[in-house]
Design a protein that fits this description.
single chain, 581 residues, alpha+beta, UraD-like, Aminopeptidase, Alpha-Beta Plaits, nine-stranded mixed beta sheet, five-stranded antiparallel beta sheet, 22 helices, metal-binding, metal ion binding, hydrolase, manganese
């Protein structure tokens, strides 16, 4: 097995020779990466190699893509692949295709090459490392065939890096066992779903209770000293330390509809694995670990969200108990049906005493494309964006599309369209500020009628409250101006106002030190999504670590993905964080 010292102490020529086959027929990658030595960890080597490719010219990147063979293509049939590619295609079962599968792959290869001009690249051993099925490969092929060429070129390079990562693991005899366990827990938990086709786990449903029971069983197996489900449905595991104070950590286990496996749950698993490793070695920290699987964060079944974390900070609104779901069931009755007390007194008793806690840390999948685009497995969150949300309606006059002159129209949809473009331009002018109109509807619209009404949503976010409020003021002022100029009226209903949650400086520094200890570069970024950490921020210091998501960083989607190698690094970073206390 190769060792890092072999590479760090080798001449450049020997360095390139030792890494032969990691990147298909492209020795220039290793040659340029050699200048970044010494590498502290295998992860550092992987990042350095990926950086060389990211900084290469487009022609060089395309040359790397062209160096790879087609899946089940002519070279495979003729036995002309490299040993590494032969092994990977064989392991994925591509050498055992049915005639129908082989014909489909041949057609997809032809269509793909005609569209993009390069071979389709997929790390067929996948994020788990055990391989995609042939049907999964074909489905991925079909999906990516519809991508924009620039997006697809970037995805091919990311797949090449994953291929290289797996080959390096083989060469170094490295196995991400903690990451594999995390991945397998996520897959097993995803078997509990309200929807047979897609993962869905909403608050206080039988599925939700089954997930809680599974988490509690695994926590007991990991060696937690106390495990239970509290009055709001949070799963809480405590691993005692030698001191009285505790570090609070965790994330949520409910999901959106048609969800991915890692949003929220990854942060619970990371902490569980850290406790399991502590328990296996009989080690106690100077502080206790309290791991919370928050029962509700997504706001999918009831209008309120952050039910789980709101209870811990003493901000559970009594009015929430009377809220209704789509079936007319109150939150109180849903709680009782799930075996929870459903009383305000029991929920209020969950409030934590801030003096007993060192802080709150959360590990979370990024839910965005930044880390994936930079080929970085981990990122440090600087702040969770503050936000304001609205639902609104512009009202004009429905009239005939053919007979009403352009200068005499009161088009409600055109008014909203103008607002959308202004919000986009205004947000783009300031770093880390975003604006989105995610819902748009013309009620009873017709192809030959000028829209008289247009409903819309508005989501405004920024890393600071001041930047958020400035965006809010400008967008609302423009809405008023648009309507006055166009002869329209409007209504606007606020639905959410959340303050920004800057990361605590000391805890952010500890995350940065943990990432540095793994040999990885420190990349700081804000979180545009809301998290339980932004609620705990109101009680104790908080800071977050992001983990790269695959497939362009997509989340809240079945394509949400994390590799076992990145999951392993997340656990190791969490362990490093614990060792700093």
């Amino acid at each position: 097995m190769m060792k890092l010292d072999d590479l760090n102490n080798a001449s450049t020529a020997d360095f390139v020779r030792l890494l032969d086959g990691i990147y298909e027929h492209s020795p220039w990658i290793a040659e340029r990466a050699a200048a970044a030595r010494p590498f502290k960890t295998l992860a550092a080597l992987k990042v350095a190699l990926a950086r060389v490719v990211r900084e290469a010219a487009v022609d060089e990147q395309l040359g790397l893509i062209h160096a790879h063979p087609e899946l089940a293509g002519k070279a495979a049939v003729a036995g002309e692949l490299t040993a590494e590619s032969t092994h990977e295609q064989h392991k994925a079962g591509l050498t055992a295709c049915t005639p129908e599968e082989f014909a489909r792959l041949q057609q997809l290869n032809a269509d793909y090459n005609a569209r993009f001009g390069w071979p389709f690249i997929l790390a067929v051993r996948g994020p788990r490392g055990t391989g995609f099925t042939r049907q999964e490969i074909i489905t991925t092929f079909e999906r990516r065939l519809r991508a924009h060429p620039d997006v697809e070129r970037a995805e091919c390079l990311r797949q090449i890096h994953r291929i290289a990562e797996i080959r390096l693991n083989d060469k170094f005899g490295a196995r991400p066992e903690l990451g594999e366990q995390l991945w397998d827990w996520a897959a097993a938990l995803a078997e509990h779903s309200e929807d047979e086709a897609f993962l869905t786990c909403t608050y206080a449903t039988p599925t939700h209770s089954a997930v809680a029971a599974e988490l509690m069983a695994w926590m007991r197996d990991c060696g937690f000293d106390a495990v239970g489900r509290d009055a709001v449905g949070n799963v809480v595991g405590v691993y005692n330390g030698t001191g009285e104070q505790r570090l609070l950590t965790g994330s949520h286990y409910d999901t959106v509809r048609r969800a991915g496996r890692f949003d929220g749950r990854l942060g619970i698993f990371v902490a569980m694995l850290a406790v399991r490793e502590l328990h296996r070695t009989g080690r106690r920290l100077p502080f206790g670990l309290e791991v919370v699987g928050f029962s509700e964060e997504e706001g999918q079944r009831f209008p309120a969200d952050f039910l789980g974390s709101s209870a811990l900070i003493g901000r559970f609104d009594p009015a929430w108990l009377e809220q209704l779901d789509a079936a007319g069931i109150t939150l109180r009755d849903a709680m009782r049906a799930a075996g929870l007390p459903g009383t305000l007194q029991s929920i209020q008793a969950l409030q934590r005493d801030a003096s007993r806690y060192l802080g709150f840390v959360e590990v979370h999948i990024e839910q965005g494309p930044v880390l994936d685009g930079l080929d970085l497995p981990l990122g440090i969150v600087t702040s969770i964006n503050g936000s304001r949300r609205y639902t609104g309606e512009i009202v004009g006059l429905a009239s005939h599309a053919g007979t009403t002159p352009m200068g005499q129209r009161r088009d409600a949809a055109a008014g909203v369209a103008e607002l959308i473009l202004f919000a986009e331009q205004r947000a783009a002018a300031v770093p880390d500020v975003v604006a989105t109109v995610g819902m748009l509807e013309v009620p009873s619209g017709s192809i030959n009628v000028i829209p008289g009404r247009c409903r819309f949503s508005l989501d405004l976010r920024a890393t600071t409250d001041a930047a958020r409020d400035a965006l809010d003021a400008d967008v609302l002022a423009r809405l008023d101006e648009i309507c006055q100029r166009r002869g329209l009226s409007y209504t606007l209903q606020p639905t959410l106002a959340a303050n920004a949650a800057p990361s605590d400086a000391a805890w952010q520094s500890r995350w940065e030190a943990a990432v540095t200890e793994l040999g990885l570069p420190v990349h700081r970024l804000p979180s545009g999504a809301g998290h339980d950490a932004m609620k705990l921020h109101e009680l104790v210091p908080q800071a977050m670590l992001f983990v790269r998501g695959g497939n362009g960083g997509i989340s809240h989607n079945p394509l949400e993905s994390v590799t076992v190698d990145d999951a392993e690094l997340a656990v190791r970073a969490f362990e490093q964080l614990l060792d700093q206390q």
